[in-house]
Amino acid sequence: MATVELTKENFDQTVSENAFVLIDFWAGWCRPCLQFAPVYEKASEAHPDLLFAKVDTEAQQELAGAFQITSIPTLMIVRDQVAIFSQPGALPEAALTDLIGQARALDMDEVRAKIAASQQDGHGGQDGHGGHEGHGQGAGTREPGTPEA
What is the pLDDT of residues 29-38, one digit of tens each? Predict the structure, then answer.
């Protein structure tokens, strides 16, 4: 399956209509982004049941800003409208495959329970909500395995 280009106009609808979305924040001038592109494309072909999307940070500066993307490429994984992973850096193929497996294995009921618990504890800013969903924190949970690059 080819990757889908995300814009501020289609982002919310795309994420709400798909249970599992991988998002590659990239730019055409970024050499690591261009090196990661074929790895990402190959993974999209190996996992046709998942939606692979790309955000051109040059064309979609507002969207990149909303997620506080400061380094590219950045890979984000959104499951059931919850950002469960966000990390800058081009992943090797094996690390991306491992990460997808870990993200598939997550119990989203448990993730939502941890979000609710962190909100009740008054840590609302670190719970995966507020414009930069899950950036770096995975909604109060640890990212599903931070791969060694």
Answer: 999 999 999 9
